[in-house]
């Protein structure tokens, strides 16, 4: 009987405040959609860092013939200069930072160059002697690139120290900024959702103030009185959360998988598995949001 009564009261509240309930659903949907986008963006950054940071190398390019770098003075690096860099990379001081070292001769560099530009006019005019000897250094921690840069920049015979992370770091920064923007918008919309849920529940409580007064007089508990109103808010919020989850599934399927991923085959993107991870988080957030807002707004109208 109690459950039937509570459900009946929930139905009355929803029918009396249809417009406000729809507004709660829409605002909750938008706010949780932004939260979901921010969460998926964070997962994407984490996935790309895991995938690429292990592959990223620091390249130490030795001076080539007629190298225009001021440190080279148009002179090619000598065998002694190359040996000095090699010895320094293999020294005990660099061991904690250096994981692996690959050496690429001018001939090997030219072979790789031909694969990329061999058929072009630029490729036909280039010879192996024009290219430079280089060291490819894989670090224990890719974040410690500055140590290699400081150690070898300006060293005799070294033309340039280049970190491959500079290629992918801008992409990480764009995704991070999108995540922060989503979180900011989600915060604003969450405040709007709380205010709407609070207003909706208060209107519902005011319209049934006579019933709640009678229930207080007959000794009904606060939880029994508040339950219908809290369920109303929770149902509206959960509906918005489910719409947000559906939008995330559609976005990942049509935007990420079908459009973005084919354009960037060199990396992997989030998929449906990540959306399934976010789904219970968003639904739980919706329920918590509704219950907290409802409990706060009902304090005046249902206090025994």
Q: Write out the strand line-up for the largest beta sheet, numbering strands in chain order.
A: 2-3-1-4
Shape: elongated
Question: How would a textbook summarize the main sheet?
Answer: 4 strands, antiparallel
Return Rg in Å: 31 Å
**Helix/strand-derived class?**
alpha+beta
Oligomer: single chain
Percent of sequence in beta strands = 5-15%
Number of helices: 10
Distance between the termini: 22 Å
Number of DSSP-assigned strands: 4
Could you characterize the architecture of this molecule?
The chain starts with a helix and ends in a 6-residue tail after the last helix. The longest helix has 43 residues. The protein has 304 residues and is α+β, with helices and mostly antiparallel strands. It is elongated. α2 runs antiparallel to α7 and α7 runs antiparallel to α9. A 4-stranded antiparallel β-sheet has the order 2-3-1-4.
């Amino acid at each position: 009987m109690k459950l039937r009564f509570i459900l009946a009261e929930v139905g009355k509240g929803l029918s009396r405040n249809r417009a406000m309930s729809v507004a709660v659903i829409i605002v909750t949907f938008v706010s949780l959609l932004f939260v979901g986008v921010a969460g998926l963006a964070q997962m994407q950054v984490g996935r790309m860092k895991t995938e690429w940071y292990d592959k990223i190398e620091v390249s130490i390019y030795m001076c080539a013939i007629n190298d225009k770098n001021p440190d080279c003075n148009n002179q090619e690096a000598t065998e002694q200069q190359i040996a000095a860099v090699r010895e320094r990379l293999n020294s005990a001081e660099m061991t904690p930072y250096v994981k692996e070292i690959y050496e690429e001769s001018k001939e090997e560099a030219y072979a790789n160059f031909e694969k990329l530009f061999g058929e072009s006019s630029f490729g036909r005019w280039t010879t192996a002697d024009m290219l430079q000897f280089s060291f490819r250094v894989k670090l224990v921690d890719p974040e410690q690139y500055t140590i290699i840069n400081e150690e070898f920049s300006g060293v005799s015979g070294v033309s340039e120290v280049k970190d491959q992370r500079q290629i992918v770091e801008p992409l990480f920064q764009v995704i991070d900024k999108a995540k922060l923007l989503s979180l900011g918008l989600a915060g604003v919309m969450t405040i709007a959702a709380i205010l709407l849920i609070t207003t909706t529940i208060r209107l519902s409580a005011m319209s049934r103030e006579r019933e709640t007064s009678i229930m207080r007089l007959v000794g009904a508990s606060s939880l029994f009185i508040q339950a219908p109103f809290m369920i109303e808010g929770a149902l509206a919020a959960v509906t918005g959360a489910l719409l947000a989850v559906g939008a995330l599934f559609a976005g990942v399927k049509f935007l990420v998988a079908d459009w973005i991923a084919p354009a960037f085959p060199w990396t992997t993107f989030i998929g449906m598995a990540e959306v399934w991870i976010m789904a219970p988080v968003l639904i739980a957030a919706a329920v918590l949001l509704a219950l907290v807002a409802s409990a706060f707004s009902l304090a005046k109208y249902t206090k025994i």
